[in-house]
Amino acid sequence: MNAQEQITKLQGLLERIQKNAAGPRVSASAAAPMKLAAPAVSPAPPVAPAPAFAAAVPVPSYADDAVDDLLGASPEPSPVPVEIDVPLDSVPPVAEIAAAPSFAPPSEPFALVSSGHIDDSNDLDEVSEVRVTTAMREPAVEVTVAAIEAEAEPMGTEELSDDDLVEVTEGTPQPTDVDIDFEDEDEQPPASSQRSRVASSMDEALAAAAEQAEAEREVPLKTPPPESGPQEAPPPTGLSAPHAPDVDALLGGELDIPTRADLAAAGPTTEQLGQTIDLEEARGPTLELAEHRSATPAPSAVEELEVALPPRDVALGYDESLQPPPEAREELDAHRRRLEDDIPPPPESLAQLPSVQPGPAPAIVPLEAAATGPEVIARPAPMGSPESFGMVRDTFRPSSFVELLDASLALAAQ
Amino acid sequence: MATRFNPSGSVSFDLVRGRVDCGGDHVLISADALVDLCKAAGDEAVSDFGRRIGTSAGRRIADRLGDSANGATLEEVLDHLGGELAVLGLGSLGLERWGRALVLTVDGGPFGQQLDRLLASVLEGAMQRAFGRDCHAVRLVRDDRHVRFLIANAASASKVTEWLGSGLSYGDALTRLQNTAGVA
Fold first, then answer.
1. Predicted model pTM
2. Which of A83, A146, B136, B161 has the maximal Cβ count within 10 Å?
3. Are A62 and A4 in contact (CB under 8 A)?
4. Per the CB < 8 Å rule, is A388 touching B83?
């Protein structure tokens, strides 16, 4: 058996493995009640992990068939049995048992899920869903894990990993053989390559070297950008370059630096004068600036909007019918009465007294009135009957506040 | 002779405990908030509130004046009572004597033209507590900053209020009150 045949067999085998991927679930779900029911009988150790569980499951009878027989079967996959996914809660335990003839019905009611005895980390997912196979599977087609392992043993477990198997069974398209004739293509450097071709002869090499030297000698013409701004002029080279100053000569002799006085005495040089034209003096009368005379403002004319008031001597008076404003009438009447009757001054009005003594570091902001002195409140204008006030003032002089308070409270209005 | 009013230590701020002591625990609140509160409370509640404030001020005045309270001059009483009102921030107190009538003035109060009832109640409470006289303060006239209160008994206060309500000027009201004096 060559490698191609082995690959073909393995492909067929893996296809069946993929199709029967639900097979172990049937076994696990069918075996679960038995395993789960076991703790009820005796305190068995916790459920083993999945791989151990798969090995511990009683393998059906067709699992004992030789792998060669399996491989020799029809490469066509067996008809896929109709599988119905039934939720665990909706399936009565009896139907589950009846649909699994390979297992003996348990003697006790099923306890498909027993959270009290199952370790959640083990096969809880496996028993959460039960698949019931309504059609019998062909025994020869069923492949168990043991059969797969037995089939895979000749190939070596290291050579055929799970990832590789998945890649094959997923129908990855086979790489098509594409004949590429590399000989038809000339070995040419890519466009980006700077590799020069090797000269075939000495003449060609000399010519290429000459061309290269000529190309290097040509300086690309670069013009400054139109708006590049002022640029520093390159120093002149060649014959126009200035000579370097002779430092030794300068340091050896005394420097003769002309001063401003020397320059002024010497006058302008011929180069500076150039073609100077002497201007003749101005002819004509001599102009002198006159003294500034303070301009007297001319009498401004009376504007149209201004109206001159009539002089006092004009026999005009104010209208007799003019009345004072109503709010000032009372005060005006009182003023006239006071002038006519020559009454004594209005009632006393005590000015505010300084209410703050200069104390050391007061806890509150001192009053402004305390700092500046008493605030004098203007005496109110009398508006009442002056006779009565004058008469009272002559006879009543309170010596204390309580006396005045009592007198005020004693005033009884009728 | 009574001592002058000395505001030193009248108000102490305990910032650690967050307390203001002005002869008892006090609270610094804004005048606007107090105006709103008094407007909502009604005249009777405002009068009681003001009398309570004035009673506290009158007690402090009586404590300072001591036995000389009855013999204190106008200037001394004005000094102490005005000082108390100034510490409370209720304005500058003045005193006028119109014949036998006692007129107290408050200048620059914090409430503007509002809550004159509160100021009158404060004066009433202070007079009652400091000198033991039941009196009534009748607002005679006020302008933007200045307000005058007549200190009189209940009957006179009521009559003067009636006169003022009838359109009589406060000067005329005082004159009429003086003309009827001596009858009581």
1. 0.39
2. B136
3. no
4. no
Specify the pLDDT at position A4.
85
CB contact under 8 A, A362 and B8: yes
Break chain B into its structural domains and give their ranges: 12-179
Q: In this complex, do A412 and B79 lie within 8 Å of one another by their Cβ atoms?
A: no
- Cα angle value A275/A276/A278 (rounded, 5°): 145
The two three-digit tokens of residue B107, written as one number = 């200048």
Whole-complex ipTM: 0.88
Q: Is the pLDDT of residue B102 over 90?
A: yes
Shortest Cα–Cα distance, A329 to chain B (Å)? 13
Cα–Cα distance for residue pair A216/B131, rounded to 1 Å: 121
User: Tokens 């060669």 label which residue?
Assistant: A68
- Over residues B99-127, mean pLDDT: 91
**Residue A152's pLDDT band (cuts 50, 70, 90):** low
SS3 of A64, please? Answer: helix
* CA nearest neighbour of A141 among A74, A55, A64, A82: A74
User: How does A361-382 read in b/e, with b if 16+ C-beta sit within 10 Å?
Assistant: ebebeebebbeeeebebeebeb
Tally C-beta pairs within 8 A across A and B: 184
What confidence score (pLDDT) does residue A106 get? 45
Q: Kindly report the CATH number that applies to the domain delimited by B12-179.
A: 3.30.1380.20
Task: Closest CB to B102: pick one of A359, A377, A408.
Answer: A408
- Do residues A97 and A105 touch, judged by C-beta distance below 8 A? yes
Percentage above 90 pLDDT, chain B: 69
Q: Any idea where the domains of chain A sit in the sequence?
A: 3-169
Closest residue on chain A to B134 (Cα): A409
Strands (E), A49-183: 83-87, 129-133
State whether A363 and B11 contact (CB < 8 Å): yes
Over the stretch A208-245, which tens digit does the pLDDT of each residue have? Answer: 888 888 777 766 566 666 665 566 666 666 555 666 66
Contacts of A363 in chain B (CB under 8 A): 8-13
Rg, Å, chain B Cα set: 17
Asked if the Cβ–Cβ distance from B79 to A353 is below 8 Å, we say yes
For the segment A355-404, what is each residue's pLDDT rounded down to a tens digit?
444 444 444 444 444 444 444 444 445 455 545 555 555 577 888 899 99
Of A129-143, A314-328, B156-170, minimum mean pLDDT range: A129-143
Largest CA distance in chain A: 155
Smallest CA-to-CA distance from B133 within B154, B119, B116, B148 is with B154
Q: Tell me the chain B residues in contact with residue A410 when contact means C-beta distances shorter than 8 Å.
A: 100, 153, 181, 184
pLDDT for the residue A331: 83
For tokens 């308070």, the residue is A405
With an 8 Å Cβ cutoff, are A413 and B177 in contact?
Answer: yes
Contact B77 A377 (CB under 8 A): no
DSSP state letter for A324 = -
Picking from B74, B133, B134, B135 by the largest number of A CB atoms within 10 A of its own CB, the best residue to mutate is B74
CA distance A300 to chain B (A): 47
Identify whether the C-beta of residue B13 lies closer than 8 Å to the C-beta of residue A364: no
> How distant is the alpha carbon of residue A137 from its chain centre?
63
Distance from CA of B42 to the nearest CA of A (A): 27
